[in-house]
Amino acid sequence: MTASKHTNVAYKFAEADGVRVFYREAGAPDAPVLLLLHGFPSSSHQFRDLIPLLADKYRIIAPDLPGFGFTDVPAERNYVYTFDAIGKTIGDFVDVLGLKRYAMYFFDYGAPTGLRLALAHPERVTAIISQNGNAYLEGLGDAWAPIRNYWAEKTAENRQVINDAILHLEGTRWQYVEGVSNPDDIAPEAYFLDALLLERPGNKDIQLDLFYDYQNNLTLYPAFQQFFRDTKVPTLAIWGKGDPFFIPPGAEAFKRDNPNAVVELLDTGHFALETHVEHIAHRIVEVLGHAIK
User: Does the annotation mark 270 as catalytic?
Assistant: First the structure.
């Protein structure tokens, strides 16, 4: 699968929930919608190579979540950075754009965001692509250990441990290259952009607040799993098997609740699109093309 030479990607903003949401859009306005939801510490930039591969078949909508990328949260909004809040903002964003039916590709933080949308409006979801987007306890890898310590004891010391381990350029680069057979395959502009945006005033505190709040996603896992059982929505769980955060048992678990789930493990890490974008695009069309309409 190759990108169209004439793919036009528009870079837009929409006002939703008091937030100026930045998003990328491509494809015909009347095509089936594919909503792309990114993860930490990235933005819709992580889909830069995927969008042209799919824009001839789908209307692609890829927002930056609040606290990430180029989405602007005004100070007077007094935004509280939790996953419930992010889910509400993206839910309002979807409504502002008038999206009544869509497939979702979610990764990392995009999973608890997208699955909140699914719980609110299960009738809208035509298909799911989970690329290292977790909904099962067994999917949490050992890399969560310092964050689990923070959940257990919300101390300044535990907060600082996470800051020192992850919230800098080398920590961001590690997330991109860990589990990848050849780290030279990873384009450096991806992790440099992510790291640069983390350095904006106040952003590291936002990320640390979200790390602490992530535990509340675990309490919703049973509801997410019930959604899979109730809807049996066509699903492709396509994961980098070397991801230290979201490990292969989390992908395999989708089959437990959904007989329509297809699971595929790739020889790569957390950011699988950096090494396997053409393969993933091909598999989306091959596995879910019948459902995304």
Answer: yes
